[in-house]
Design brief:
The longest helix has 13 residues. The mean pLDDT is 96. This protein has a single domain, classed as Serine Threonine Protein Phosphatase 5, Tetratricopeptide repeat (Alpha Horseshoe). The protein starts with a helix and ends with a helix. The chain has 78 residues and is mostly helical. The radius of gyration is 12 Å and the shape is globular.
Length: 78
């Protein structure tokens, strides 16, 4: 949730680098939503250099856990 707050500028100044940092911590612990959000950041080049391979990697991890948004984004990438 802290990553989302930084991503959207809710209660804090918008800061994609901080959002990426917090998403990364949650994603490393297997959180599918955080993995999807990391995929989005790589897909859109927000807070990181755009990298479709990394986006695909994170979407795939989340999709394997049943995250519908990640599954949709993988479909869009294909």
């Amino acid at each position: 949730n802290l990553g989302l707050m930084y991503d959207n500028g809710q209660g804090v100044a918008q800061n994609y680098a901080k959002a990426f940092e917090w998403y990364s911590k949650a994603a490393a612990q297997g959180d599918a939503s955080a993995q999807t959000n990391l995929g989005l950041m790589y897909d859109n080049g927000q807070g990181v250099a755009q990298n479709y391979a990394k986006a695909f990697e994170w979407y795939s991890k989340a999709a394997a856990q049943g995250d519908a948004s990640a599954q949709t984004n993988l479909g869009l990438m294909y």
